[in-house]
Fold these 3 entries.
Entry 1:
Amino acid sequence: MTIPFTPSRMEEVMERTLDIQGRSLWDDAFRRLIRNRAAVVGIVILGLIALAAIFGPFLLAYDYSYQNYEIVSCAPDWWPDSVVLCNAGGTHWFGTDSLGRDLLVRTLVGARVSLAVGLIATLVSLVIGVAYGATAGYIGGRVDELMMRFVDVLYSIPYIFLVIILMVIFNRNFYLLFVAIGAVEWLTMSRIVRGQTLSLKQKEFVEAARASGVSGFGIITRHIIPNVFGPVVVYVTLTVPASILAESFLSFLGLGIQEPLTSWGVLISEGAAQMETAPWMLIFPATFMAVTLFCFNFIGDGLRDALDPKDR
Amino acid sequence: MFSYAIRRLLGAIPTLFIIVTLSFFMMRIAPGGPFDAQRRLPPEIEHNIEVAYNLDKPVYEQYFIYLGKLLHGDFGPSYKTKDFTVTELIADGLPVTLRLGGTAIVLAIFIGMLLGTIAALKQNKVTDYSVMSAAMIGITIPTFVTAPILTLIFGVYGVSLFGFDLSLPVAGWGGGALRNMILPVIVLALPQIAYIARLTRGSMVEVLHSNYVRTARAKGLSSFMIVVRHALRAAVLPLVSYLGPAIAGILTGSLIVEQIFGIPGIGRYFVQGALNRDYTLVMGVLIYYAAAVILLNLLADLVYAVLDPRVRYAR
């Protein structure tokens, strides 16, 4: 005797399945990430720095380009070394720089610029790298070989030299800095995406899509790209600090952000020039930058562990 | 093996050609010429200068002239350092950069491998964690932060230990004096030490768990002999393929280090050339760097094949 499959019974079955919460790859990854203490601390600190960078300059009493010649290169009031030439006084908690500008607000504005460069350059590299890698991997054959050969060629130049040349050509353009750094950071991204695409393209769901007449562009955007997301996310968290470093590197050499706007690289460069008499000008921006880079690295490591399917 | 080396060398030629072409045309697109001065020169003189540097000819002709000269090892005249050719400037700076970078990489390999091995032997102990945290710091803190900080400690404040004065000169080359080299070499080597230590630890941990190491231990070999005789050979392999990126890293770092410590190497010429829009100099150094990176990568691959008999370049 068979159980009659009535509508009410079907509802019961469906209700029971609804009770079982499915855990997707991302749920699992998130759980693992939360358990990783270093990554969580990294996320929290990074969040605080980002909040301070966004809102800090509005809340502070000084403008980042306001120069007060009464207090040039002055230490903050609480500076432990007693042999300082002068104290900035008031609310200059980080002291002042060589033009009498408040260092705290400049460090925060520098954080804004550095984080923005990191994020936007990474976005540029993400767009170029994913599009390039997915196209090469999906088309395959001759085209793939040619496209990847080009990547190999670019790989053989230490990339910072390319950025320097781009900055020389385009005359230290502020907006171009973002694009130039992104335009050289996409190489590894495109390799990762290409490798993933090559294996994805053999999968049944891609074949099914092709059989039902989806165009090549549609398959790449709808089926391939969403599936390469995991490794890409990990690589993105490592590209952001690399971009921040690249920008500071250029600014340190005088090829990046130009005055009066500032970034951590500019501040560190100014601080390094004055460190004998005014070490705070070096220590504060350098600490901010180092902490930020640490956070990104910890988050990247955490994400890699969380998304690594070998652990599952 | 030999034919593989030849094929790779031939493969490097189109790569270099593309780099030369790309950089040449990028430099020509650039707005503003190398001779834009505050004071306008009389048009006749301006014309004479253009003729002297072949700038009056069409771009493609300039390109072929440049290529032809390049084949003879002539990078052309420097646009900004008058009376010097780029070849002379490079020949002037190269020994300095080579000495600095070479010392740094040797130091990085030795110390990095030593630290990595120690960490692997004490896996998951305090030593391991402290070495790896130090490596993390070495990787994240950029050269342009470590250089001023070390200068501050050893140069400006001066450190004395047990009555010895440890203060070091903070700038200048001093004709390559040892004292002048210590700080720049350390700054250059630090990030690479950190990377190499991490790599060595990773591969060493793997090797130490392998069967043949267990056999060696079972037959009573001392832990020192196991590491030196057996484990190190296998663990060194990933390092060889890291040599290419390491050299690129040292070259990049030398830009900053030469600038900070005032060392007359080609990295400083590159930065000065970039700031002054000295196109021929920048291109010359870039081509030099690219050639060096390509050649050293090739060398690393060949060394890898010699060390690891499992890798055979047959095709």
Note: The longest helix of chain B spans residues 86-121.
Entry 2:
Amino acid sequence: MNLLAQEVAQPSIDWHALAPEFVLVSAACAVLVADLFLPRGSKWIAMPLSAAGIIGTLAAIVSLIGTETTTLSGTFEVDAFSLLFKALFCVLGLIILAISFHYFRGGSYYQGEYYFLLLSSLFGGLVIASARDLISLFIAIELISIPGIIMVALRKGDAKSNEGALKFFLFSVMSSAVMLYGMSLIYGVTGSTILSEIRTSIGADADQPIIVLSVFFVVVGFAFKISAVPFHFWAPDTYEGAPAPVAAFLSTASKIGGFVGLLVLMFKAFPEVADMWAPIFAVLAVLTMTIGNLIALRQQHIIRLLAYSGIAQSGYILVCLALINPDNPGASEQAFGAAVIYLVIYGLMDLGAFAAAVAFARKGGSYFISDYSGLWQRSPALALLFTGFLISLAGAPPMAGLIAKLFVFLATIEAGVYWLAVVMGVNTVIAAWYYLAVVKKMFFESPDVAERVEVPYLLTAAMGVAAAALVALLIYPPLLTNLADASIF
Amino acid sequence: MSWIDDWGLSLATFLPALGVVVLMFLPSARETLAKITGTVFAGLALIVGIVCAVRFDYGASDQIQLEVDATWIESIGARYHVGVDGMSLPLLVLSLLVCFLCMVYMWWHIPEPGKPKALFGLVLLLETGMNGSFVALDLILFFVFFELVLVPMYFMIGIWGGPNREYASVKFFLYTLFGSIFMLLGFLALWINSGTETFDMIALRETTGGASDLFQNLVFLGLFLGFAIKVPMWPFHTWLPDAHTEAPTVGSVLLAAVLLKMGTYGFIRIALPILPDAAVTFAPIIGVLAVIGIIWGSLCCFAQTDLKRLIAFSSVGHMGFVMLGIATLTDRGINGAIFGMVAHGLITGMLFFLAGSMHERYHTREIATLGGMLKQIPRFGTVFSYAAIASLGLPGLAGFWGEMLALLGSYQPAEALNVELFRVLMVGGGIGTVLTAGYMLWMIQRVNLGVVPERFESGKGVFDVQRLEWMAWAPLLILIVVAGFYPKILLGVTTGAVQNLTRVFGG
């Protein structure tokens, strides 16, 4: 009797550590309920409500700064790493709200439902930053993807939207199945789902082929989620079919969520067997960078271009994972820090580029690059901001993309993998070509139509903040690098 | 005034960047206001630069002065370390001066499609990159500034350039980016090899002694790619004629006068002192490529029909002399190289100003359609002859000393180098000077002399030098003759720093 009582006793829960998640979930529910009672013309109020919820979440995150704790029986950890990414998800969420507002208000979309789904997905991001066991990792990643699938399909009447959602759904389910299979094998071998316990258990007998197999399955599952080549096929079609703000979400927040999960898993559970999986990532990285870039060269549609460029960009982050070496902890830490820095800067610059694409297509524009000609004369501010983001993606000053690339190069050299550095170098030049092609259209050609492009203040402000942050990070990188250093496990 | 010793260089570097920020918030309709703002910021930077030059202790020009060494990216050991010595000060002043003169010149004329606010802003941004490259003493800081010039120059060529501008601008950007990536890899390899995780150019000199030959040579190769493309050395020069020909006048001027020097400066500031052994290995290769460049560039000049393209190819030749001087690894050669850099900046900058102004008058740059300029607009024609003759290296003008010292240096190169080879190179370079004289005189003959072609006989639109043009050009014209008659004005500054550098080569 006594024994039974002990077993069902509640584990002690650190409510403060969970505060950001609670705030965000409450906000999501509030949005859903409020939507029921809002008159048709006022549905847009869901957006400021969501923004307030995210700001509240940010406040909760700020209140946790400096905390290092685990709760829920060691499956949920709050540390510098998780707080950095929770804050990043919130900031990206706010920018996505700014992109979404006019887009969804103008179209015949389900505004309340959309904001609810977006917040749910962000909630998944918050959880994945803290998840420290296989089950919560899996739930978190599904929490990011599944609302994403519905959001892609929001343009119900559009065949492309349906096609994109269906592809996303099928690939997502398949990759989940593969990932789960790998996870179940790991559980079978180690007898635990908690990452730190898996690590100790694997350290004892690392040579078992079953471990190789299970890690391979898990990596493949994640490779689908982060659209690494050759598991990338769904991404461009899905992005193109989805409402543009959703594509922006998938390319940034959702992808970063996948990477966070991957980093946690690889560093917390499998560092002892890194010599086995690091080469897999090297191959994935080279394929992802090179093929992503080469296909991007031929794109005529800005969303598809950004999709392929996003694929290529994730190649650089995969490089960081390929550099892990249990015998060289210094180099491994450098690589981890580089991945964190790259993810944060990538999130800002890629989302900025999506925001600019949406701003242009909103009125009088389109998503075809050929229509960008002379944008400079139709809206100087938009052209300048767009160029800033593209130049950042290309990795040239005065934007922080250079810093992101610098740290990845540095980690690669420190790990002594020179050939990867050369491959990255060549890829950087290839990528500059297609980013510049868009810039060229905007600035070097005269406009086909003289009509000015009006950009809503909200959108300009969001882009301006992202661009200013990128410039600031170039001038004084310690703003970010110190955080990244602190967040190394 | 002691604060200027600390922050003068930073001020000279970042005042133009501040100007860009101010310009961004000005309404684009107020064109005059934009022009004033741009000129004022470039002028302020120039004044600060002159004050720095005055505070500089010329007795100790081998020492880094006006130094600031502050924390920057602590986690990787990159620092905000700036300072100048006798090698970098002349180039910094050159950059400040030429940028300011470009601002003045742009009051006279801005090519299609106008937009002075954007053009002035880009020149200012470019200036920050150029000044920063010459004062940076930390490799990462240097790299950021080195890369910073790409974007503004890309836009200058692409927006205000000639008919083939899209091709030229992208070629410029990608070519340079390609080189600088390998340069960066070299920097990072030096960092890892240092053991102390430092990017400091001075501190790194002590760290490469123990490294293997293979390592040193590979790193040097990386740096070589970055700098040689920027110079540009034959066979990496093909972006240059396109960029120069298509760029607007101020773009060509800045490209020739300052941007190219960032490559040669990189050799003497970074590659040679940090990797002296590899420099000895590479010196013969650099020397041979330099002489091929001299002769190739000169021969190409004979075949050019476009005035700007001709001057661009003459740059390939002149920068070949600079590289030949560097390859000798001697006091004489490197002093000559720095002299050549400054002289080429003054003279070729001037020639590009002239080519631009001629285009405004004749609306063509085809040499074959021009003629009799001296007859029709005598002052302009005289200035043109003056600059062209300075360019061919007439004694008494600035162009002479760089070539002479480079050739003299290759007569007796550093001990470790093959004397026979360098004497052959000297002969090659000597042939180059004859060819240079040949095409320059031929150009003067075709453009300045002869009869005025029928289509320009009316003299409509063909006016003589304007007041604003005089204002922009006079400093260059004066400095060309001053440096020619009194080379010590420059050699006196550079010698100390150069001796400091060549000590490792037994010079």
Note: Chain A touches chain B through 34 residues (CB under 8 Å).
Entry 3:
Amino acid sequence: MIGTNELGALLVSFIVLVSGWRIFQKANKTGWHMLVPIYGSVVWMDVVQFPRWLVLLPIGAGLGGLLLGTGVELALGVQIVIGVFILLTIALQIAHSIFLARAFGKGAAFAVGLIVLPVVFLPILAFSNAKYIYSFDLDSVEYAVGPDVLLRVDDLRVYFPTFNRDMLRSRGPDVRAVDGVTFALKRGETLGLVGESGSGKTTIGRSILNAIAPTGGDVSLHVDDQTYTLAIDKLIPQSFRDVVDRVLPAFLRPLALQNTRRDLLRREIDQARQHMQLIFQDPYASLNPRMTVYDIIAEPLITSGERLSDSELRKRVNNIAQRCKLNVEHLRRFPHAFSGGQRQRIGIARALVTNPQFIVCDESVSALDVSIQAEILNLLADLQKEFGVAYLFIAHDLSVVAHISDRVAVLYLGQIVELAPTQALFLAPKHPYTEALMSAIPEIDLDNDMESIELGGEIPSPTAPPSGCRFHTRCPYVQERCRTDVPQLLEVAPGHFASCHFVDELTLKGVNIPAAGTDTPEEVAV
Amino acid sequence: MVEIVPEKTKKQLGETVLQVNNLRVAFKTDEGLVQAVAGVDFTVQRGQTLGIVGESGSGKSVSTKALMQLLPPNAVIDPESQMILHKADGTTVDITKLKSTGREIRSIRGDEIAMIFQEPMASFSPVYTIGNQITEAIRAHKKVSRKQAREIGVDMLARVGISNPSQRFDQYPFELSGGMRQRAMIATALSTNPSLLIADEPTTALDVTIQAQILRLMADLQEEFNMAIIFISHDLGVISQVADEIAVMYLGRVIEHGTTRDLIETPKHPYTQALLNAIPRIENLHARLQPVGGDIPGPMSRPPGCAFHTRCPQAIAGHCNVDLPPAYRISETHTVSCFLYEDQPIAEGGDA
């Protein structure tokens, strides 16, 4: 439980405590009573918050008892206890601020954090309605969703900070990996996510699972009449935001909000984890070579907190291994004894063993050979039918995505530019970027000579996305308006969303399909 | 401006650049000898692209690395193999006989035969500028001054479609994006004007849009420089777009060889057919895929007879698992190593 971070914080707290004691002694001579009301309320606030009162209360009680026991006057005893409380609180807050400062890099930012945070942050928390913030009820967040919606992602944003190379390691512009993504996933559905590298597809998958903490937006998972809130903009009351906005400098605001958010969400996320899983790309890198396959598959069950007896555990692991076409006799072996395709099946079995409702497949077939890839795709489809699990299928290979997905979302620079049922998207794309992607697919059909639309240049940097429509720098149909106006993602046909100013004016080419796909082009006997 | 397309490229189309006969490569390992390439024949002609398709472990990369003597020290090229390179000055040389560290192979590497790799970040040195690395290749093979080499290099960068080439020339690889790096890689490879370019999965690490750019660029440059290309890929879609002929490899052997149209439209070998069927097609969206059954056998457990018989739905018991199928000639351009075509004449040269 206690890592190096915590130990470091404790050490710093101790140093601060010793030096703080000297300041306290000096203040005592002059009139330190003035500080009591301010810091007293801070202490009260800290008492409300769970981990701190656990530390502070026994110390206070113990110290108070000790003092009274040795015959100190009651009034003085109370004052000393409050004084110790104050010092401990300051120490804790400083330790806290050190964590924050670490996020800004070392050096001068460290010193700034050390001084600014206790001075600025404490009074804000003291004077704002702190109790209200910390006791906000997660269950009272209501989402208007249909009964078949499993996952809702609303305005999801994930930014990564950058740092300049100067002495202060000052903050540069954020990398906006995901910048306002909204979609819903139905039960048992597969949503494909395509886009070039750098478009944010992996970041979306990981931030939904909270492997990367989202910067903003709302994510909720609805399983068995329960709603798990995984990311929350709504959760932080406006009153608190107002105070933060007014008092904190701009660069500290997201941090203050994010920390509050994460504290609140930890329990919620832990509970939701067993309902969502991830299947990785590289089956050689994602299995621990020192664990047997049985242990690898059983691990999610053990950590999920379900108390299972050994025989129950064995039953469930064997059952899922069989479903994933693994030989139960081979479960005692180590991963090195398996081929790439078998390893990927182990990864799938591990993901499915907790009976999740939602699985993120992050390039799960990209590293496999074509002959094996087909088998894994079939297996994923079969398991979906059997368990009713929903996939968020992330891949760069458009034909694979087209094959497995019910709907497909096309991403560009961290935003969805088009979202539609697979058939509609591939036959009649509504966004120029989708059209360009389609035309770039290397087709095997030799007579279907489709001219690929060459996109000039490469995907722009997400630190400084282009103004207006983000695609305008590479769009073959660009017009003046695209440079300035930001297009909205609008429903252009039932279930078909696209964000382009000229949706109605452009006629875009989809994939050519000979004779509406009535017969398969290859009639080879195999 | 230095003339960078000298006389040697003004040769005729269709002239043989490289002829590989019965190439066999094995690796010495602790567990024994692993036969990675077990008898491969192919020829490459000027101005033509030979596509080599195969799954991992099929020996496609090993056989092309053997062409440049770039294999690790534990690899053994069978001395009976022949890799005959027709050099630009009219002489021929058998690469098999050359020492992998000798002066002669070093004059071939990068000059006669150039190579581009899958991962452009891994194949450029991160501590030298792009220009530095292009100049190094040029000056290793041509007697030019630093200034002239720079001129050639900048010109090459411009030709591969890098904007602002004289500025890019002095940048480090990490300052370029993936697509740009692959372009710079191609520029480096072509700066010595090779007769044969080996492209080992050059677009696998790139996005589809960038892949389309690079494929088009390579086609344009092939026309301009009139060189032969060996294009290795596991992606039949990519291969069918760039290659004139395709060789399909399975466990160290070419099992089918023919023009692109032969292979894509009338695949003969059960493996080629299965491979084509396993690819998800956009035309028939939710049709169930037909995977190739079974797994690729490990390198230590090479099946006897036809290596594919363990996964082949049409395997003839007692024949396929015992005898090695020779190459049968289906048409002028199309050969296949499979006993299903036993009624066809055996192609001279033994193997496909």
Note: Chain A touches chain B through 51 residues (CB under 8 Å).
